[in-house]
């Protein structure tokens, strides 16, 4: 969750989490310790976000340029563009290496301060930091929210399903946009293979997602365990019910691995 950006917190805290992970893996700092790759300790998207956004020419200028080059397109002009792109990419990779080296140095300095801390203590401190986020313990799903079938422009959100409530988060924000207990849920189910409907009192929320079945099963499990389940309409729920045994409930920081499988991959840091 931390490495994929599902625990919104400061860079300082992310560096401390990385240092605690190193302490847990390698014990006290040593120049002979085996260092994991930076992307195994620190979220890559944080460093990528520091890079300057690429500059784009106005559409009119681009069209004018294409007209001027005429028959040179794909020839000399194409070579010039390719060279410019290569130079830009080289500058960006150089900047990324610098940011990565600076971040690793900061992590190592924090690691040195943990000398004498045992593995159980490092793990406990790690979890204690992550628990500061209100969404700790929830299973998070990437969804696109449509407030109604006719509304355009879905909003990308995190749908957090926990043991006591369902919450909606704007990615990267600490506090939920909205949260509601299971007693407020009147029905839920799959409208189709990629649309999940959640009725909360007088509101109908439509989520576009590739994980309709996982969301429905997890909601059904929690509702059954709390004894507040409002059975969804049979035609709405196109999935089999999940086990009602509380022992089968997801537990801890990362209850299930499946909700994170569809996260777009991030590229490695340059060595």
Order of helices and strands: HHHHHEEEEEEEH
Category from helices, strands and their pairing: alpha+beta
Question: Termini separation (Å)?
Answer: 24 Å
Q: Quote the beta fraction.
A: 15-25%
CATH class of one domain: Mainly Alpha
Low-confidence stretches: 56-60, 231-271
Lateral arrangement of strands in the main beta sheet: 4-3-2-1-7-6-5
Shape: flat
Number of strands: 7
Taking Cα atoms only, what radius of gyration do you get, to the nearest Å? 24 Å
Name the average pLDDT. 78
CATH architecture of one domain: Up-down Bundle
As for the CATH topology of one domain, it is Acyl-CoA Binding Protein
Q: What's the number of helices?
A: 6
Provide the helix percentage: 25-40%
Q: The biggest beta sheet, please?
A: 7 strands, antiparallel
Pfam families: FERM_M, IRS
Protein name: MYO10 protein
List keywords for this structure.
single chain; 271 residues; alpha+beta; Acyl-CoA Binding Protein; PH-domain like; seven-stranded antiparallel beta sheet; 6 helices; 7 strands; flat; disordered C terminus; Actin_motor_Myosin; MYO10 protein; FERM/acyl-CoA-bd_prot_sf; PH-like_dom_sf
Short description, anyone?
Helix content is 35%, strand content 16%. With 271 residues, it is of the alpha+beta class. Among the domains are: 1-50 and 89-133, Acyl-CoA Binding Protein (Up-down Bundle), CATH 1.20.80.10; 138-226, Roll (PH-domain like), CATH 2.30.29.30.
